[in-house]
């Protein structure tokens, strides 16, 4: 998995037989890589095979206890060096404004970047397959012992703790994000609508998101 | 009849994933509304237990949705729920990823990036509230949830650490007949 010498990369990408599976080809991606390399001092894009994508994300799934945020960074940036920290931050930022699960979105984007459509499919499979089976095994095991008093007590405690986890995450995120009065107002509005009034998410976001974006435009103009 | 459930299930999960922003925490209130409040496929207690089990297993938090699908309609439900949650949003992400260079320099992207996070914080707190209401039935639960929340807010630890401690405390408390 050592990064290839810069000269090798173009050749390697073009020759890879696996890329034959990608209906979108590699032409567009060559251009974007060139600009990305010339724009910043990041290392050249390494060649990553479909198998490596699959096993890499398999590792993310298996090591990702308590969420995969740390595991995905460890594998993609630190261990395999597929992306630099800056490139990862850019992809993460994109994943956060898109609908769906952020880290699953990122997995699809990274898989596609290195292996086209099939790279994305295999990365997603690698990420989810083993954890799904472990989850079903765990739930089946739970069902066997669901009447055991220790299991009942432990599960109740885990469920309460899991709610605490989300509170803790919300607090941590809020501390860095809610840095002015207006962000606090928007956070409160979405909390009241969803948490207290139990209004549907679609209606809430359809109203609040455009207002928040428009407001952000307006503030951007007034702050110069 | 069974096919009918699967269609409804698939649509509920697809709909929840496609309208959510900011990740799995923001999906919890909507999927809870859909499968517990509106359709009654699960009780509050089953929802809380399924969520807890999915938190203990390794892998992406999105597996919470997988777990719900499995509980509602077995292996078929598992498959439908997982695919409906992951595939459509991944396709959108994949297309956005290919346009990343263009998107990154667009003005609306910078504005959206600045506008959404406060809404997401509110949604995460709403998730926490809904999960707490489903999971907490006694004072020990309140104490454990508060303890885990405090631990998560003040340290950079892996979530499984406070969760394991909570489980041990819960079992010990039940054994000594405290609750």
Please explain how this structure is put together.
The complex is a heterodimer of chains A (224) and B (179). In chain A, helix 3 packs across helix 4 and helix 5 packs across helix 6 (102-144). With 224 residues, chain A is mainly α. Chain A has helices at residues 6-15, 27-39, 50-63, 69-79, 85-97, 102-144, 149-177, 181-196, 201-222. Chain A has 3 domains: 6-137, no CATH class; 149-177; 178-224. The model of chain A is unreliable at 1-41 (pLDDT under 50). Chain B has 179 residues and is mostly helical. Chain B has a domain at 2-109. In chain B, 83% of the residues lie in helices and 0% in strands. The mean pLDDT of chain B is 91. Chains A and B meet through helix 2, helix 3, helix 5, helix 6 and helix 7 of A and helix 1, helix 2, helix 3, helix 4 and helix 5 of B.
Give the gist of this structure:
The complex is a heterodimer of chains A (224) and B (179). Chain A has helices at 6-15, 27-39, 50-63, 69-79, 85-97, 102-144, 149-177, 181-196, 201-222.
Which residue ranges of chain A are poorly predicted, with pLDDT under 50 across at least 5 consecutive positions? 1-41
Mean pLDDT of chain B: 91
Residue share in β-strands of chain A: under 5%
Query: Stretches of chain B where pLDDT falls below 50 for ≥5 residues?
Result: none
The chain pair with the largest interface is: A-B, 103 and 110 residues
N-to-C series of helices and strands of chain A: HHHHHHHHH
- Tell me the number of helical segments of chain A per DSSP (H or I, 4 or more residues long): 9
* Main beta-sheet strand count, sense and barrel state of chain A: none
Rough outline of chain A: flat
Order of helices and strands of chain B: HHHHHHHH
* Range of helix content of chain B: over 70%
Tally the helices of chain B: 8
Question: How are the SSEs ordered, and which strands pair?
Answer:
The complex is a heterodimer of chains A (224) and B (179).
Chain A: H1 6-15, H2 27-39, H3 50-63, H4 69-79, H5 85-97, H6 102-144, H7 149-177, H8 181-196, H9 201-222
Helix pairs in contact in A: 3-4, 3-6, 5-6, 8-9
Chain B: H1 2-19, H2 24-38, H3 44-56, H4 63-98, H5 100-104, H6 107-135, H7 139-154, H8 160-175
């Amino acid at each position: 998995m050592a990064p290839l010498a810069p000269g090798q990369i173009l050749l390697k990408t073009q020759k890879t037989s696996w890329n034959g599976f990608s209906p979108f080809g590699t032409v567009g991606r060559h251009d974007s890589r060139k600009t990305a390399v010339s724009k910043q001092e990041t290392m050249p894009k390494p060649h990553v095979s479909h198998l490596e994508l699959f096993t890499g994300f398999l590792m993310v799934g298996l090591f990702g206890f308590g969420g995969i945020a740390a595991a995905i960074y460890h594998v993609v940036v630190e261990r395999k060096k597929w992306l630099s920290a800056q490139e990862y931050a850019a992809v993460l930022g994109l994943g956060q404004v898109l609908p769906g699960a952020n880290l699953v979105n990122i997995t699809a984007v990274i898989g596609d970047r290195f292996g086209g459509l099939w790279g994305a499919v295999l990365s997603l499979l690698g990420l989810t397959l083993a954890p799904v089976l472990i989850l079903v095994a765990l739930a089946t095991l739970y069902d066997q012992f669901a009447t055991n008093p220790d299991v009942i007590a432990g599960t109740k405690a885990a469920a309460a703790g899991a709610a605490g986890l989300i509170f803790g995450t919300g607090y941590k995120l809020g501390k860095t994000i809610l840095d002015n009065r207006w962000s606090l107002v928007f956070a409160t509005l979405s909390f009241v609508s969803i948490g207290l009034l139990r209004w549907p998410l679609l209606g809430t976001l359809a109203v609040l998101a455009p207002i928040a974006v428009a407001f952000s435009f307006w503030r951007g103009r007034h702050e110069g | 009849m069974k096919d009918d459930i699967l269609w409804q299930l698939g649509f509920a999960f697809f709909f929840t994933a496609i309208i959510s922003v900011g990740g799995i925490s923001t999906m919890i209130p909507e999927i809870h509304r859909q499968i517990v409040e509106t359709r009654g496929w699960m009780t509050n207690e089953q929802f809380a237990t399924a969520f807890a089990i999915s938190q203990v297993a390794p892998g992406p938090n999105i597996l919470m949705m997988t777990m719900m699908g499995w509980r509602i309609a077995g292996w078929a439900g598992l498959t439908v729920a997982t695919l409906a949650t992951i595939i459509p949003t991944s396709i959108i992400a994949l297309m956005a990823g290919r346009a990343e260079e263009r998107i990154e320099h667009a003005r609306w992207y910078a504005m959206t990036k600045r506008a959404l996070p406060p809404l997401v914080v509110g949604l995460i707190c709403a998730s926490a509230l809904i999960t707490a209401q489903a999971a907490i039935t006694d004072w020990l639960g309140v104490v454990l949830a508060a303890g885990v929340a405090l631990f998560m807010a003040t340290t950079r630890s892996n979530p499984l650490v406070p969760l394991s401690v909570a489980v041990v405390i819960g079992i010990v408390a039940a054994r000594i007949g405290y609750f």
